[in-house]
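input
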Amino acid sequence: MIERILMGAVVAVCLIGLYVTAPDQPEVERQAEQYCEMVEIWDQTDGDAGWPPYKGREGCER
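output
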């Protein structure tokens, strides 16, 4: 009986965790896009503006 309650609680916590973290994906994508845009600006201005590629250039198409 207690095992079923504990298992139900674990499942509920996992489902809540999935529900809470799902909206974060668009923000992660937005930040990656912003990073690539800023690195491109860095390249175009010879480092006068934008961000240096501190995370590398993986995922940024040129």
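quick obs: The helical segments are 2-21, 24-44.
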